[in-house]
Specification:
alpha+beta; 141 residues; five-stranded antiparallel β-sheet; globular; 5 strands
Length: 141
């Protein structure tokens, strides 16, 4: 709970890693972050849920879940993206339609956008279909 009561007015939002991953997530209604681990190849990851606006039975299938991670370098980001793409292929049809992208830079970010159907429960990447987050959380790259 240190993030709720930060010392000297600092917060998680003041850290570049959290800023970068939050920017990657975009406009989500919920986000779950892993712990910041600056000494690991993947410094930080998060899952977010994005709801289509004006949700109806038709638009519910446009809901997405987003996985973002910040890597220590470009090579790690490329390996993480390859791991995510492999899981998408291996676990078909669970993650069909998933788009994995890498934004290079000083702090490379990998983003996987996973489409949901109206029948899927929000938060499934965190609770049920955990293979994507597991592919980057447990890897040493």
């Amino acid at each position: 709970m240190a993030a709720v009561n930060p010392k000297n007015g600092a917060s998680l939002g003041d850290k570049k890693e959290y800023q970068g991953v939050a920017e990657c997530l975009g406009d989500v209604y919920r986000a779950d972050f892993s712990a910041l681990t600056s000494d690991k190849p993947v410094h930080l990851s998060a899952l977010g849920q994005h709801a289509a606006t004006g949700v109806t039975a038709t638009t519910a299938a446009k809901n997405t879940e987003i996985l973002c991670l910040m890597a220590k370098d470009a090579a790690t980001a490329d390996r993480a993206a390859a791991n995510l793409r492999a899981v998408v292929t291996e676990e078909s049809p669970t993650f069909d339609g998933t788009e994995v992208t890498v934004v290079q830079g000083d702090r490379p970010v990998v983003r996987a956008v996973v489409p949901d159907t109206g029948a899927q429960r929000p938060g499934r990447l965190l609770l049920l279909d955990t293979d994507l987050w597991g592919a980057i959380a447990s890897s040493e790259f």
